[in-house]
Amino acid sequence: EYDTAYTGNYTYDSLCIPGPPQSGFIYLDDCDIITSIEMPSAAEYRAKISHIPIRIFPNPANAQITFALENTEHHRNIELRCFNLLGLQQHHARINSGQQQAAVNVSGWPPGMYVAAVYSNGKPVGRGKFVVRR
Question: What domains can you pick out in the chain, each with its CATH number?
Answer without folding.
Answer: 50-132 (2.60.40.730)
